[in-house]
UniProtKB/TrEMBL annotation:
<feature type="transmembrane region" description="Helical">
    <location>
        <begin position="160"/>
        <end position="181"/>
    </location>
</feature>
<keyword id="KW-1133">Transmembrane helix</keyword>
<dbReference type="Pfam" id="PF07298">
    <property type="entry name" value="NnrU"/>
</dbReference>
<dbReference type="GO" id="GO:0016020">
    <property type="term" value="C:membrane"/>
</dbReference>
<keyword id="KW-0472">Membrane</keyword>
<protein>
    <recommendedName>
        <fullName>NnrU domain-containing protein</fullName>
    </recommendedName>
</protein>
<feature type="transmembrane region" description="Helical">
    <location>
        <begin position="35"/>
        <end position="55"/>
    </location>
</feature>
<keyword id="KW-0812">Transmembrane</keyword>
<feature type="transmembrane region" description="Helical">
    <location>
        <begin position="76"/>
        <end position="95"/>
    </location>
</feature>
<feature type="domain" description="NnrU">
    <location>
        <begin position="4"/>
        <end position="189"/>
    </location>
</feature>
<dbReference type="InterPro" id="IPR009915">
    <property type="entry name" value="NnrU_dom"/>
</dbReference>
<feature type="transmembrane region" description="Helical">
    <location>
        <begin position="115"/>
        <end position="139"/>
    </location>
</feature>
Length: 194
């Protein structure tokens, strides 16, 4: 568990610093360092944290359970993951109706992913991991709202291609994860075989 906690502290520490850093002229660290050096340092710390999270999560896999999830939990998780994948895709595409409605689709995707996995997993490592991601997404959403960042301008034209792309990519990613990637990356099959 120490590697998992250290990874979460590094990963979310740099993300929370970025969310709450001063953006005032002369005080903004990103302006003072320059965009490339700031993003390089930010990326190195985030990647180091992410690697520690992966190692720590795997090492803490057998610590035990905090609670036993309900039998229907995995079905709720599967239902939440489809809109999470669509929201994740929408975050990186031109603003369509989906992105405008969600305002910050990446944070919506993280919240759905974390909540779904908390419903389906009661092991200590899972609870620590998914609670951390859920808490971060809530805190970051509050931070962006306080900064006045309300997502894409609702009056701007909507990109139909952005919406179509989010649906196609999101549904495709969902199917690939359900049937292959989740088991390959995490070692846990979503669809039980046999």
């Amino acid at each position: 568990m120490p590697y998992l906690v250290a990874g979460l502290v590094l990963f979310f520490g740099v993300h929370l610093f970025s969310a709450f850093r001063s953006r005032a002229p002369g005080k903004d660290l990103r302006q003072r360092l320059g965009y490339a050096p700031y993003m390089g340092l930010y990326s190195l710390v985030a990647i180091a944290g992410f690697v520690l999270i992966i190692i720590g999560y795997d090492q803490a896999r057998w610590i035990g359970s905090l609670y036993f999830p309900p039998v229907w939990g995995r079905h709720v998780t599967m239902a939440l993951m489809l809109p999470a994948m669509i929201a994740l895709a929408a975050a990186y595409l031109p603003a369509g109706r989906i992105k405008k409605a969600l305002k910050h689709p990446m944070l919506v995707a993280v919240k759905l992913w974390a909540l779904g996995h908390l419903i389906a997993n009661g092991e200590w490592n899972s609870v620590v991991l998914f609670t951390s991601f859920l808490a971060y997404a809530v805190i970051d959403r509050i931070a962006v709202k306080k900064r006045g960042d309300n997502g894409p301008n609702p009056d701007a034209p909507s990109s139909t291609l952005g919406d179509i792309g989010a649906l196609i990519i999101g549904i495709g990613a969902y199917l690939v994860f359900v049937f292959h990637l989740h088991e390959w990356l995490i070692g846990v099959p979503v669809v039980l075989k046999g």
